[in-house]
Amino acid sequence: MLEIKNLHAEVDGNEILRGIDLTVRPGEVHAIMGPNGSGKSTLSYVLAGKEEYEVTEGSVFYNGVDWAELGAHERAAAGMFLAFQYPIEIPGVATMTFLKTALNAQRKARGEDEISTPDFMKLVREKSRELKVTPDMLKRPLNVGFSGGEKKRAEILQMSLLEPTLCVLDETDSGLDIDALRVVSDGVNQLRSPERSMIVITHYQRLLDHIIPDVVHVLSKGKIVKTGGKELALDLEKNGYADYVDEEAA
Amino acid sequence: MAAVQETIDQVKAIDVDQYKHGFVTDIESELAPKGLDEDIVAFISAKKEEPEWMLNWRLDAFRRWKTMEEPAWARVDYPKIDFEDLHYYAAPKKREGPRSLDEVDPEILETYKKLGIPLSEQEILAGIAPENRVAVDAIFDSVSVATTFKEELARAGVVFCPISEAIREHPELVQKYLGSVVPVSDNFYATLNTAVFSDGSFVYIPPGVRCPMELSTYFRINEPNTGQFERTLIVADKGSYVSYLEGCTAPQRDENQLHAAVVELVALEDAQIKYSTVQNWYPGDADGKGGIYNFVTKRGDCREKNSKISWTQVETGSAITWKYPSCILRGDNSQGEFYSIAISNGHQQIDSGTKMIHLGRNTASRIISKGISAGVSQNTYRGQVSAHRKASDARNFTQCDSLLIGDKCGAHTVPYIESKNSSAVFEHEATTSRISDDQMFYCQARGLDEEEAVALIVNGFVRDVIQQLPMEFAVEAQKLISISLEGSVG
Ligand SMILES: Nc1ncnc2c1ncn2[C@@H]1O[C@H](COP(=O)(O)OP(=O)(O)OP(=O)(O)O)[C@@H](O)[C@H]1O
Ligand SMILES: [Mg+2]
Fold first, then answer.
1. pLDDT digits (tens, 9 = 90+) for B163-205
2. By the 8 A CB rule, do B117 and B136 touch?
3. Higher-confidence residue: B142 or B275?
4. Which end of chain A is more exposed for a tag (fewer CB within 10 A), N or C?
5. Which of the listed residues A42, A152, A203, A220 should we mutate to test ligand 1's pocket, taking the one with most ligand atoms within 8 A of CB?
6. Does ligand 1 come within 6 angstroms of the Cβ of A152?
7. A92 touches chain B (CB under 8 A)
8. Highest mean pLDDT range out of A128-132, B69-73, B268-272?
9. Residue B448: which of A89, A94, A105 has the nearest Cβ?
10. Integer Cα distance of B308 and B246 in angstroms
11. Which of A95-99, B131-135, B451-455 tops mean pLDDT?
12. Virtual CA dihedral for A180, A186, A192, A198, nearest 10 degrees?
């Protein structure tokens, strides 16, 4: 279970998150929506452990573990996964190599044996087929020259391979064409399970037709200003954020 | 790149500041007294039972060396070397030169075993496919202690032996080619080497022969206060091919040790030489104390038409490296290549690069240099590409990339380009980059710790060059890269 209490965080001395409270139980999918610049990506970075983001107040616990005690790589081994809004290029490192290195690093951190090469190959082939990631992409350096949609699919491929229990998807739907949106959503839905928690950040109700959330939150100026069911997303789509944002300003 | 995981394990197993090859072998050795004069030169020559012409050649070099100045143009900084405070000859006590493996001191065999280089042919043969075998010449301080697979090579007509033996047994070949690429008074260190070199490897590949296995020399400095001056000569006769590997280590010592080697390559018509180096001399400790001064002259001569010489180097060790493996493209249609990975960490200083001298018609050269600097190190690429008046249609492509880790190190690129023929086409590309915080965070968010992340990103950066190395060396090189970057982050 993820428990975020009164979380304040700043970057370069600017306070971006101003008191977030959020609990995500195992098996739940929460959607976070909100205007540009409201702090959605910041929240995802703080959860994943990006160093430049300083928590100034409040706390994050995951399965009873104080997240403040763990560095980014330890959080990953403890089940955290962030699908980046803007995936990073790693020149010269084949996607396949990256996947294997990441998987083995996590297994080792958990005291498990490395995966054998044949088992790994089998796993990758199966998962990449589901996500329509071509063998050619697996050979290319990670994210280098990938199209926007290819990058997003590669993120979800990593997620399905690493099998995290706490998934944060930051605008995974942006840049996807209609078919890719379905493929990626199917991939995400397959990972839905009673022990897995998900936070899905998006601007579009469209994604939530495919990945149906249990709870929808509206983030504005670093705070959750509204929480509701999946109908909240429909309402936002129709009326925009004005109602909630104003409420906050008043 | 399954090697990355292996690499990482290795890094973990080692404490920071612990050079893996830093052990000392306890053997009795025979040392020349410190200092250098004509008597010492004559002593070395006598020890090697050399003919008169060889002694005279050395003495000539020594006299010229006395008149020369240490070069000061490289971007490296070190206290003046006291050339009188060095031993110029050290040999494990026992018989002169190895007649067979049984005569090699077991302590020495053990040393090479620890370094992962078994010298017993049975051990080498166990579990290795024939095409992956490597014949090794092992040089311990000043002498060659063992050369493997000599008989099998001899059946193919290949000569692979210590150079001291070649001087005695193949004088006509040695006299014809030794000093023909790097002349006696080429530069301060090469001239010193000519006067005092004690051993090294000699290779001759007869016409039309493709050498049946990789040849390798493994250098080890053991004795303190000893200079190592080895001399390597490789001649590939018409239409032949050879791939040669060189590896080096030294114990961890507080004082600096001098290594001034000379390597000469000669490729005749249609011949090809591929020379790969993994240089891992002791780099000094975290405070910059100790380490090897690696002042090396390496040059290849594409002497006849359609010949080709490729240098590939992975330079991770040494306190100071000063080295420019070069190609003289004399034959028409000849080709030269230089692929380099140079890593500096801690207080290391590297000034390395290449020279491509285009003399013949329609010659081509290619330079790919990857410099990685970390810690407070300084890393300079210095390269010269020149086309002679008669070198019509000379072509060069140079790609020179620097990667910086942290903000206390330096990377410098010094290209000299000179063309006396208007048909020459020289291209030069250079980049300098840093490992970004975003790349680090991305890798860490996937479960890699800082060192694993750096190792992965650096291995990606050097991939083009690693691919040029023979398979076994590539794996070793990747491990070395990670080990030498240990402690470069955080
Ligand atoms: N290094 C920084 N220094 C100052 N302000 C920053 C820094 N990084 C981010 N911000 C600001 O923090 C705010 C929140 O950014 P964040 O990326 O979290 O927004 P977001 O909700 O994800 O927006 P979008 O919907 O456009 O992706 C923005 O106003 C941004 O400009
Ligand atoms: Mg965002």
1. 989 999 999 999 999 999 999 989 999 999 999 998 888 999 9
2. yes
3. B275
4. C
5. A42
6. no
7. yes
8. B268-272
9. A105
10. 19
11. A95-99
12. 20
